Amino acid sequence: MWKTALFLIVTIIIIPFLAFRIDTPLSPGQQAILADLLRIYIIAAALCFITSTITGNYSQVDKLWSIMPVIYVWIICIRSGYEARLLLMAVVASIWGIRLTYNFARRGGYSLKIWAGEQDYRWPVLRKKPEFAAKWKWTLFNLLFISFYQMGLILLITLPALKSLGSGPLSWVDYLIAFIAISFVVIETVADQQQWNFQKEKKRLIESGQVLPEKYKKGFLDSGLWGIVRHPNYASEQSIWIVFYFFSVSATGSWLNWSVIGAVLLILLFYGSSSFSESISMSKYPGYVEYQEKTPRFIPIRTRR
């Protein structure tokens, strides 16, 4: 995990630097807005680190994952004077954010004590790894990766909005992009609901002492969207922000620009995150390896392994 984290931290430093150097320089207006966004990012990341260190709950970034992108895009939209394209982008980001915030909230992610709430099950597992036996190593990992890397990525995925600042009028392409992005929000909603229904019913059966039917006995969901790919929610999440990037393509007329770095780094993060999640699932559920063999990870294309 250390190697993966270090690789991601290096990429979030090097890739943006190279992208900014190669692409068209930011305008003074874009530079001013980016400076404000960076200040917000540093404050938010620092608060996540301090809070998680004090409380031992390392899901502080998770609480903000669906909130901060909406704030960033709306700041850019407002500073633009509510340009039509940026207003559309802000609406799309808001639809995504409201849906994901609700899903996180119903799982117990938020609490009246804002620093409390349910913690991602993967952090305690990772914390027990031998490489994090020394407290300072985990503290450093929390600082660099959990807090500052992840919060930085949250900012980067919204920067196609900054790249779109000052561009031309809306076209049918922008509406198509918005439609596709919202379609992926719908798919992600269905995937999360299927997982919610499965886990809730499995818990009810276990607590009532009933004999588990075969579909629940195996322990994990492998039907519905989860029978097409192993992580339909992750696949949709990545797709949403890849599609969001294409707003900047429509705005600039260029297929490749520096704001693509957020989507690229998001793909790398989700690949590593899903691999770690699956390593836990394999240790808990004997049938998970067979599920891996017959079901693709993100893209519904079956390949021989």
Please provide a written account of the structure:
The chain contains 13 helices and no strands. With 305 residues, it is an all-alpha fold. The chain has one domain (2-294). Helix 2 (28-55) packs antiparallel against helix 7 (135-156) and helix 4 (68-79) packs antiparallel against helix 5. It is globular. The mean pLDDT is 91.
Write the layout of secondary structure elements.
Blueprint: H1 2-22, H2 28-55, H3 60-64, H4 68-79, H5 84-106, H6 122-127, H7 135-156, H8 160-163, H9 172-207, H10 214-217, H11 232-252, H12 261-284, H13 288-294
Quick overview of this protein structure:
The chain is mainly alpha-helical. The chain has 13 helices and no strands.
Helix coverage percent: 55-70%
The separation of the N and C termini measures: 23 Å
Q: Quick one: biggest sheet?
A: none
Tell me, briefly, the overall form. Answer: globular
